[in-house]
Amino acid sequence: MTRLIRTSAQRDLRVDLARGVALLFIFIDHIPGNQLNEYTLRNLALCDATEAFVLLAGYAAGLSYGATADKHGWIFAAADVLRRTATLYVAHILVFVLVTAQVGYSAELLNPAYVEEMLLDPFVTEPYRALLEALLLRYQPNLLNILPLYVALLLMLAPALALRRHPLVLMALSIAGYVAVRITGLNLPNWIGGGWFLNPFAWQVLFFTGCVLGYAPPGGRPLAVPRIAPLQATITAGAMLVTLLGAAAMLAFWAVPDVAPGLPGRIARVLSSIDKTGLHPLRLLSILSLAWLVAWFVPFDAAWLRGRLVAPLILMGQQGLPVFCAGILLSFLGRVVLEQDDSALAQAATNLIGFAALAGVAMVNAWFGRAARSQRRPPAEAPADASPLLVPPPSPARESHS
């Protein structure tokens, strides 16, 4: 498995590992009744794996498309972003169809309530309208709202790439939009009522923060690094304080029910109002603090990042799209299994088999990708006795995480 991992002197495997962990947490959290989800990020911080996924997606986008824009120009990079957007859109529609079929069959065979719980009941009354609204991304059943958010964020990225070398301007516009959304509640419409569950006008601030952190001009360091270098110790102390207070609040408010009634009213109201739709400021501060601490305490060149123990998670992070799509389908299947048998053995088997399946999807996708790249390589670049499926020698160019 380690031979399928893409490595180079410039590639940050910490990002791949964090994304793999986020994808695994998303799979675990999407299974109701899964006892393992009591130990994922959402119960230990004021944020969850979705925030990590979006921040890392922004980092990868800034790294990849920023380099493309520097090499080929902004228009070419924007077109590449739109191409990727189309891929994500097609993936979302495919997963939508598969989940609808999966839930519909399970409802007919086991429990009719699945349809209503997954917000798929419009297909019973207005199937053609529901399909149209799904194609327009105005209809997003449960579990199917992350890829539409990613599509919307990439559409915003295409014009924003023109500001890649002006991070202060880009972040000023992004923060202004975020503040406006928090004040006005502006959101995209949702056919079944309200707005998008993950409001892209709010979540863009996290995505563009990742973009700014990931982008580095040719021959230079990320533009954000020199400005914050003198404050590293202060930022680290603040990040630790935010993380510890968040963990304490979550443990006190949710894990120990007897504590919540005794909290001061103002604190209880704040904790209960930390919404996910509009990316509450405390959620934003929490994920940024965690990201800073990981970057601070985990060395870029840590030897264990290239070990076998974390290889499955790193490979999952490098093959994010197919792993995410497979995780959505497997999570509902895991729910069905645990509703039939909630024993410790069933719990362990559901999580272990699910993890193995996600790692398997990542391996197969990486294997085919490596084979395709080796076939496109000119014969002069590879000796006749070279294996086309082994990791190629590191390239001097900075490698993309997308």
TrEMBL record:
Name of the featured protein: OpgC domain-containing protein
Transmembrane helix found in the keyword field: yes
Assigned keywords, A-Z: Membrane, Transmembrane, Transmembrane helix
Region of interest (Disordered), ranges: 377-402
Pfam families linked: OpgC_C (PF10129)
InterPro entries: UCP028704_OpgC (IPR014550)
Superkingdom field: Bacteria
Transmembrane portions of the chain: 86-105, 143-161, 168-185, 197-216, 228-256, 282-300, 344-368
